[in-house]
Each structure stands twice: as C-alpha cells, then as structure tokens.
Amino acid sequence: MSKTKIVGSSSVRVDGLAKVTGAAQYVDDLDFGPGLLHAVVVESTRAHAKLKKVDVSKAEKEPGVVRVVTGKDFPYMFGLYMQDRYIFAQDRVRFVGEQIAAVIAETPEAALRAAKLVRIDYEPLPTVLSLGEALKKDAVLIHPDLGNYQKVPWFFPRAGTNIAHWRKTRKGNVAQGFKQADFILEDTYTVPRYAHCPIEPHAVTGLFDLSGRLTLWASSQSPFAQRNVMATALKPFGLTHRDIRIVTPYVGGGFGGKAGVSMEIIAAVLAIAMKGRPVKLNWTREQEFMNTSQRQGVIARIKMGVKKSGKIVALEHTLHWDAGASAEYGANVVNAVGLSATGPYSVPNVKIDSVCVYTNMPPCGAYRGFGYSEFHFGLESHITRVAQAIGMDPVKFRRLNAIQEGDTLAYGAHMNPGNLRGAIDRIAKEIRWGRKEKAAKPGKAIGKGLACFWKAPAMPPNASSAAFLKFNEDGSLNLTVSGMEIGQGFLTVMAQCAAEVLTVPVEKIRVETPDTDRNPYEWQTVGSHVTWSCGNAVRAAAEEVKTRLLATVARAKHLKAEDLYLADECVKSRKDKKLALPFRDFVIDGIMRPNGNFIGGPIHGTGMFMPEFTSALGDPETSQGGHPNVHYTVGCAGVVVEVDKETGKLAVLKTALAVDAGKAINPELVDGQIVGGIVQGLATALYEDIRYGANGRLLNPNFTDYKIPTALDCPGEIVPIILETAQPDGPFGARGVGEHTMVACAPMVADAIADAVGVRLKTMPLTAEKTALALRGIEYDDVKGDNLGFCFRGRPCDYPFDTGGAK
Amino acid sequence: MKEIAIRLNGEVRRVAVAPNETLLDVLRAKLGVKTPKEGCGRGDCGACTVLLDGKAVRSCLILAIEVDGQSVVTLEGVGKAGPTALQKAFVKNNVFQCGFCAPGVILSASALLVEKPQPSEHDVREALAGNLCRCTGYAPIVATVLAVAKKSAKKKPASRRARS
Fold first, then answer.
1. Chain A nearest CA to B44, separation (Å)
2. Does any CB of chain B come closer than 8 Å to the CB of residue A255?
3. Which CATH class is domain A33-125+206-282?
4. Top CATH class, A16-23+464-609
C-alpha cells in the first residue's frame, strides 16, 4: 500500500466546530412555523389482547384537537426484512406500548390531554412473555398469519409456531468431533434485553404537501432504507420513491436503534392524514425505551469438545432469541449470529442453531454489535472454562485456536486477513497477563480477564454505497454521501478519503448529512460497514475527479495525461517541473488557450461500490454454499478489576482493547470508538439491568432506574490499541471498528470476577448483587423474583433446548 | 400567562409564560434558543443544562416563571465572541461524537472552571456526572477539561507580570 498523507492522520472532525458551538441542528431544533401540528400516540397497556373497541369520540372533542387516527385509517404492515409489524395495531395488540391510535392537535399539551381520553376495550389473550412459553407445544401464537408475511429469501419462519427465523449452520460432523474430544464442557448462558439509550430520543416531523409530496425530517441512521420501506408500505396512497423525501440532520446517537424504520412511519401517515400541515412526533424517553427497538435477550447452550492439546474439535451452539412482538429487523441479528457463533476460532465441526422467537415483549432490532456481544458472552466465558479445565492457559488456548487468513469459516467461505494473534499478544502484555496481583486494600481481590472478538457487517448481498463530488470556484469541494453521521466521525473520514486522492486539505471539503432527494444512494449506516463501503465509493468518485483534472489540463496544454499528477492542490507534470496549475484556476472556468478559447468546464465525479462477491443463497439446512459476509474485523480486549469480597462491588482499574482496523483512516476517531465502545460494553456488563413486570410492562424505562454510566462510573485507565492488517478490498485497506469495541466487554469482566473471587457468573448483567450471592453459595436464579429481566423464568440450566429434531 | 424578563445570553428578553411551563420549553419554543436539548424531561440526562446566574442547572426541572429577573446563559451565549479555549480544545481533540450532550457538557465544565479554575480529575468527573454521554466514554471530555485548566494556570502568572 502506498504511503498516505491525510489518510492515517487524525484530522479534526468536519462537524467539530458545529457541535461545540451549538450550530449543529438535530431534528427537534428545526422550525416549522406556527402551522406545525403535534402528535401523541396512544399505546397498549396490555401485552396480548384483542382490540374490541377503540373509542376516540371524547378525544376528538377536546379543544385543540384536529384529528384522531387509528388502525382503521391505516391498516398497513411494514418491515425492513419481514413485514410483520402494523403501523397501528389492527385486531390485536402484541406488547405493552404498541401504538393503537394517535392524536393530532395544535399544541403538544392538547394532544397529550386528548390521548388520555381515547377509550380502549381489550379482550385479554394469554400472554407469551418468555422463551419457554413461546416454544412449548401448543403455544399461543403471536402471529397466526406468519406464513403469509412478505420476507427476504434468507429468512425461514415456521408458520404455526412462534419461530420467526431459524438459521442453521452445519460444518463437518459434530457427533464425530465430540467422539474425538478428550474433554467436553456443556453449559448455558443468558443475556437479557438492553436498551440503546441515545441521548436524543427519536424525533420526526412529516409534511405531506398539497402537491402530494411527502417529506420527513427524521433522526435516522437509514434515510434510504426508510424511503424504500415507506414507498412499499404507503403504496396505497400512490406514493412512489420520487414522492418521498427523507432529510436527516445530525443524529444524537443511534447505536442501531435508529436503523431501519420504527416510529418514523407513524409520523409519515399522520402527515398524510393532515395534508398541507407539518406534523411533529417526538418520542419521550419512556417511549424510546419501549417502542423503538431493544437488544434481544438470548439464552444460549454451548457444548464444546477439545483435545488435550487444546485444539477445539467440535462446537454445538444453540441460541434462542427473544425477538419480542416483531422480528422484522431482529431476525437478521439472529441470522448473523447463526453464521458466526463460532467466534474468531477455527473449528472443524460446527452445529449452530440460532432461533428467533416471537414473544409479547417490545420488538427488538439492531443494537451496536448486532448479536455478537450477546453470543460472545457465553462463548468466551466457555472458552476460558474449557482451557482451565484441561490445564491450559486461556491466552495460549485462544492463540492456538485463533482464526487466520484463509481458514474455512463455518459456512464454507474463507477468512479475510486480520491479526488476531497479534491483538491477543498486545492485550496480554498490556494487562500483564499471568502475573497475579494483590489488592492494596484488605477485603478486596484483583482479577484479570481477556476475551477475543470478531464481527462482520450483516447486510443484504447487494447493499451498496454511492458518492458525488464537485468542485467550487476556489478549489474547495462539496462531497455528498448518504451514510449517516451518528457520532462515529463518518463525514470526516469520507472527507479524508477524498482529500487523500485529490491532495486537498480536509478543511476544503464540505460534507454534510443526507437528503434522499439530493444525495446519492446508501443502503444504511449500520454494521460498521460505511467506512469500508462508502469509503470505496468516495475513493472512486475522487479518482474520477482526478482523471478529469488530468484530462482537462492535458487537453488544454497539449500534454499527455500520463505525465501529469496531482500534488498540493495543483496539477503538476513529471516532465516539466515548472508546471503547477492550481485547481482553483480551472476547475469551474476552464483553461484559456492562446486564441481565447476555454477548455474544460465544471469538474465533478461520481463513485459507487457494491460487494459483488457476496451471496445469501446458502443451503437453508447447512448455510453452505453462499458467501453471506463481506469480511470480519477481529481483536482482543482485557481488563483488570478489583472486587470487594464481601459486597461483590467491582471497580475497573484498567482496560485495554486492540482491534485490527485494516487501516485507521483517522486514528483519533478509532480511539474514540474504542473508548466509547468499552464504556458502553462495560455498562451492559455491570450497570444496565432491564426489568419487566409479570404483565410484560417495562418497569424501568428511564435513566433513574436504568443506569447508564456517568463520568464517575468509568475505568481508571483505558488503553486503545490499533492494529493494521490491510483489508484488500477496503478504502486504503480500512475495515469497520465501531461496533466491535463493545463485543468482548462482558465476557472479559466475567472472567476477571472469576479470577478475582472464584465465582463464575453466567447471566448478565454481572452485578455486585450476583457476585455477593454467589460468594455465599446462593443461586441468583433462586432469589431473583418475578421481575423478568430475562427472557426466561427459572434456572438457565433447566431450560429445555429442543431444536425440534433438527439435523 | 405572566410576562417575565430574563437576561438571556446578555440581552434582556421578555416573554409571556404559563405557570406550568418549564424554562427548557420556553427557551426552545418561545425564545428560539435550541442548544438546550430535551433528552429525558426529568432531570436525569443533563442535555438541557443552562447557566442560571452562573450556576449549571437543568432547565427541564425549572419553571420559567421562577427565573424572572435572572440571568440565563445557554451555549449560544458562550461562544458569542468566538469559541472559548474550552470549545477550541474540544474541537482540536475530536472529543464529541454525536454532539447531542455537548451543549450541556460545555456549560457544566465552563461553570466548574469559573468556580474552581484548577480542578482535580475527580472534581471534573463530579461536575460532569449530571451530563450523560453515550458516545465518548467521557475520558476525552475529562482529559480536555483538565488540559484547558492546566494551560490557563500557566498563562495567568504571565498576565499578572504584564500588569505589574
């Protein structure tokens, strides 16, 4: 790879000044004038019930109310990968918080008052609030029409059950693998649901203007995917793609929660109902918890067989996921895990069953890590236990089994480049692995943990990116892309990619958030794939601009383009050292020839990228034969904790994470992803503890009761480490790192607790309470009570894993 | 409705408010000041932080009618004469990510640096403990506040010498 100047340097963020001065606008900061209407949604108070009557007569009479909308007005389904969700509930409600009606009023206060006057008569249906209930024989069906739903071809729902999707991966022969094994360990691990908690709740304003054009200003990671989902769902109104416009200003945090479509489609239909007037719909913090999406809960059974040498010979990984009442996005999380639940290890015999299960809980979807954090908790915990059981150092065990370039993946494709062993070594050194440390204070114990991670973007095989680049008179440029700036620094990195090719300083490139009318296509900003995918598109656009720059000068000056090159914002010549034509002299107005003619014209370029080597057409029974993932990013993380032997209270003294970024286009922004991702990961491991009542109602939908870390709750030291093994098809060798940084956090903490005080926690979160109980020999599951933080009742070890006679 | 007068970012603004309107709603909806954000509406997240007579407060928990005659500073008022040293350092160090918490964080940190120009790391973390950030992991925010404080300490003796 040739040396780069701008790529690889920590350029200042292009949105930095806007964000510290408050110039950066988020959706709710936009003004729509005095004609703006406000909407409040009426939600189900029942987890599962028939809707007998929705009486809006009183609400309609409330002063200030202009209209009340119900499911009768908009009886349509929608969904990203599977259309299993209604805009408004129809004949039944499927979770507490499901939208039943919406009040549109002149003021937010009037809308809120009227929403309380909507009367709903329910006829109770038996609820399905845990995986056990959902999967039992003759279970109550949450989606009796499952067999008729529109879906992508790589989902396999089972009509007549609560199974929304079942991903099977089969490699080698697991039965024989276990026969060869010298040691086998089997155990169950559980991970509850989690909430994204962006500080900005979802917000949308919609306008269906008098010419029939629908514009939405949305806080979204996915403007184009939203437009597409809406064009499909709103076809009955004659709306086509060209009639729908999504404008996405800055987003106040996404973490997957603003991917796909959730409440945005409600704002769209409310706008349609109020043609000519803008309608605003803002989610409250409570709604942000209950009715966007959550991270799925999972209960995972792992059976691993190893040789005395430490080589893994067989892995059986069965995961039952609590998708909630809709799996339109969550089923793809399940799918991704079903392909990759070996973790970053080379395993010859594999059987994975990843099963997506409907429950009467709020719908789940994408969350930073896309299922990988969830399965790594069990898998990495299990690996440490297996290594220790055969008397092998867990770091040595991981090094031995670490996946390497060219290894055959569970679904038959081959592993891309990545330096996992290098990452393990760096982390082991950083946390002084193997050196037992004594706590400074009495009553405390120091423990260390280390875990590996990998993750691939989960995307359709034809997910693509595009970029437009145009010059201005002064040699500055506008770059338009539709990846979303959700904080990760996407816009800055795209500017760096263009700047590198064109030898222009980053400050001279303006790149802003998308508008589907003006910006080129981008599938979605998810899966940590936009740096890679859109970076390739931007690079291609910049190369096209470069070609035009050279061609213009060559034509005007009668030179050969191949003798020309770009440097310092000029076209220069290898043959004539004196030639240095600044871009600003010709990129709009052209170059004058001696006779007064001008040669050239406004210079611009376009680029696109689609990974043309992928395929989702693997065999449904084995997943062999396709190429569902573009590449994996690998890495390792480690932690040093201090645990109070009496209370179980834990302090993170130090943590370090090494990730193979391929090429860090902006190292400081990669560090930002590492530090922020570790703290979010530690939060899921230590603090965030979601609770549902026995009626399916979320009990802690606020930051008082659902704790995310404050500045006081962070590790003493965080060490980010970047490795660079180039991704051959990435822009300048780059691949994604954003989600990966939280994936290893929970298992490394579980290992560190075990190392410190000798108790193994197998259910997240790893709270002081659980540690303290375990230290006293009390099973947490025996005392946890009825609040469903989990997707199951009882003990995980008693959970029946019936995979229905699957091969 | 009652008319109140507040000194908002240095200018006296008069506005009619209902007794139950929060300062946050009045700032955003009636006075066009959009940097205080609503993240939770119940005082948990700190995105709505403003300076009330110099003290960092949550504007979602304060009724507008209570602040009649007081001074309110929002982020719009902080960098009026160009970005402050703290704002510049936040940009230079690529500190903020999504930026939604930035207005509140900057106001809390600015108030701290006035009250305690040489804070310890714990002081900074404590002063920012009411401002939730989901992106950064806080480390770059805390480091930058400390660096700016340190830099201003170095400058001060020089300016004293200049005066004497």
1. 6
2. yes
3. alpha beta
4. alpha beta
